[in-house]
């Protein structure tokens, strides 16, 4: 019924105007949906948009399908507003009480989504995890929207940074400290190796030799690289699990050298008119596309660069998937754009790229090379400690194990929501207090709304579901619930997960307002039944939306 209503409106407007693009937008305070089509028609009809809107509304008054759905149509200036009737509201609430609410029909499109893909030379830090959380939330939304999805982590196991790590393990004291996590151990050796290189630049030649050996397939060198990278990934796995982030496959960069894909891609690039050769060095001149720097593909020593192997990886994606999406930091905008451009020149499908600005802490910036960073592990530990203190203050009667369990879920909600609530193109500072504020725009605030709904339903006991709503607060809450499937659709269409974060907070707000104005447990008869049904619908919608955000829908706080 929820989607049928939009379909009916689209059909009615198309029949009335002859246009397929009927420009539907959110109706705001005045309506459930609105159309701005009068603005487009004004250019061809050479009439004022207000007059056109009035004419369209007059024509739609006779539409039987709109009338049957109980949809009211009116003109508000140049806008054509649609207000949904009781049938829509009842159907929405009934749908929202069902498990899996918000799931969209299954689709055949095969999608690959790559995110995180941090260099395995040290722990994931606060900057990395915005990538992880944006990517994981998008993945959950795509699955909710019915897509066939594979989530990948592209492992850079051949770059200079890994060669430096390997050199460090060959030449420095590298015993692992007691209790030291694998990725932290790798970072310590990487930092110490960089300090040695600064003192003796001649070490660079040894690092270059390692890169040549690994690309040529030298068995001993390949084994060393893979061993250290694997250990770092083991450390990453712990961090990602604590953030509730999941990957389906880890794809190794070196595999595209071993199987010949990188060589084949370079061979194709050599034949492009934009290719520039300087002995064995190969670069692309992409000036005609607005790029001022050369896009290097192969070094003068004959070794491929990361870009060449990345092109091979994306060529493989192009063959095996219908759609590829990459989540990349703002510092990858240039190389991402060059990658897209080159793939198009090669006749391959280019990935869609979600670029995000960085998240930082009030303490300052994070740089792995210099050893100055705040690891994601440290962030999780600190937020969990603060969450435990907050839960203890609020619920001192609970045993310690229960408080720790709640604190772990609250900390995860605080981190994931605070990071994903900001649109990707905006930078943000993670604020400890805001992230854990139960009364403000935070993940725990939404969790608390869900816990309140659970508490009401537990106290209520049995009731007969009723979908016939009457009061303004009841209808406002029902209409907010009804938006959830459309929000999922919008998130995957625009690749903007913060839309879901905003919606979920608004749903919690609307529920709290409803609870404040409308007695639920103290009401009687049919009124009590319909309000409890609404509480059940909101509880279920919060479960589904929180799960899509990667946040635990806990029942008590």
Task: Characterise the protein shown here.
With 557 residues, this protein is an alpha/beta fold. The protein folds into three domains: 2-84, 2-Layer Sandwich (Gyrase A, domain 2); 115-360, HUPs (Rossmann fold, 3-Layer(aba) Sandwich), CATH 3.40.50; 376-548, Isoleucyl-tRNA Synthetase, Domain 1 (Orthogonal Bundle), CATH 1.10.730.10. 56% of the residues lie in helices and 11% in strands. The protein is built from 22 helices and 14 strands. It has helices at 2-17, 37-45, 49-60, 64-68, 86-96, 126-144, 160-171, 182-199, 203-216, 219-242, 255-258, 261-270, 306-320, 333-345, 376-394, 400-420, 432-435, 443-460, 472-482, 484-494, 498-517, 525-548, and strands at 24-26, 33-35, 72-76, 79-83, 110-114, 148-155, 249-252, 275-278, 281-284, 295-298, 323-329, 352-356, 359-360, 428-429. A five-stranded parallel beta sheet has the order 7-6-5-11-12, with helices on both faces. Strands 1-2-4-3 form a four-stranded antiparallel beta sheet, with helices on one face. It has a three-stranded antiparallel beta sheet with strand order 8-9-10. Helix 6 (126-144) links the parallel strand 5 and strand 6 (148-155). It is flat. The relative contact order is 0.11. The model is unreliable at 364-371 (pLDDT under 50).
């Amino acid at each position: 019924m929820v989607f049928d209503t939009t379909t009916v409106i689209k059909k009615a407007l198309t029949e009335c105007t002859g246009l397929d693009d009927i420009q539907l937008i959110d109706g705001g305070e005045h309506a459930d949906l609105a159309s701005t089509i009068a603005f487009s028609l004004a250019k061809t009809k050479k009439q004022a948009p207000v007059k056109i809107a009035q004419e369209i509304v007059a024509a739609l008054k006779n539409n039987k399908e709109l009338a049957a759905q109980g949809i009211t149509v009116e003109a508000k200036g140049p806008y054509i507003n649609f207000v949904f009737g009781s049938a829509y509201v009842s159907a929405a609430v009934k749908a929202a009480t069902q498990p899996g609410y918000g799931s969209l029909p299954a689709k055949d499109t095969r999608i690959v989504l790559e995110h995180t893909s941090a260099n395995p030379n040290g722990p994931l830090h606060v900057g990395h995890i915005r990538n992880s959380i944006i990517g994981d939330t998008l993945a959950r939304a795509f699955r909710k929207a019915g897509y066939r999805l594979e989530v990948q982590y592209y492992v850079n196991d051949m770059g200079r940074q890994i060669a430096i790590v390997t050199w460090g393990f060959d030449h420095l004291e590298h015993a692992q400290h007691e209790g030291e996590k694998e990725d932290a151990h790798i970072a310590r050796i990487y930092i110490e190796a960089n300090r040695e290189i600064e003192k003796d630049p001649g070490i660079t030649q040894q690092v270059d030799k390692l890169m040549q050996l690994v690309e040529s397939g030298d068995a001993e060198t390949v084994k060393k690289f893979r061993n250290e990278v694997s250990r770092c990934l083991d450390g990453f796995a712990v961090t990602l699990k604590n953030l509730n982030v999941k990957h389906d496959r880890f794809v190794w960069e070196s595999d595209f050298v071993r199987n010949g894909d990188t060589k084949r891609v370079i061979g194709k690039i050599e034949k492009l008119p934009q290719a520039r050769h300087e002995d064995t060095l190969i670069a692309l001149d992409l000036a005609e596309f607005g790029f001022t720097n050369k896009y290097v593909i192969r070094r003068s020593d004959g070794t491929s660069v990361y870009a060449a192997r990345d092109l091979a990886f994306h060529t493989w994606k192009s063959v095996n998937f219908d759609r590829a999406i990459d989540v990349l930091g703002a510092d990858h905008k240039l190389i991402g754009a060059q990658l897209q451009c080159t793939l198009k020149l090669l006749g391959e499908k280019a990935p869609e790229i979600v670029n995000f600005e960085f998240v930082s802490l009030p303490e300052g910036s994070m740089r792995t090379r210099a050893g100055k960073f705040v690891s994601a592990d440290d962030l999780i530990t600190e937020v969990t400690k603060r969450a435990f203190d907050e839960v203890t203050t609020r619920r001192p009667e609970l045993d310690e194990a229960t408080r720790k369990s709640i604190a772990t879920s609250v900390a995860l909600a605080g981190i994931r929501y605070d990071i994903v609530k900001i649109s990707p193109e905006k930078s943000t500072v993670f604020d400890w207090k805001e992230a854990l504020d139960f009364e403000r725009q935070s993940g725990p605030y939404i969790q608390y709304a869900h816990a309140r709904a659970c508490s009401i339903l537990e106290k209520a006991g049995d009731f007969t579901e009723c979908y016939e709503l009457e009061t303004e607060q009841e209808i406002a809450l029902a209409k907010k619930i009804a938006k959830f499937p459309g929000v999922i659709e919008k998130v995957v269409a625009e690749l903007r997960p913060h839309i879901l974060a905003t919606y979920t907070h608004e749903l919690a707000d609307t529920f709290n307002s409803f609870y404040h104005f409308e007695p639920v447990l103290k009401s009687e008869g049919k009124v009590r039944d319909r309000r409890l049904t609404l509480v059940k619908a909101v509880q279920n919608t919060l479960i589904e939306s929180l799960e899509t955000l990667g946040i635990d829908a806990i029942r008590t706080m």
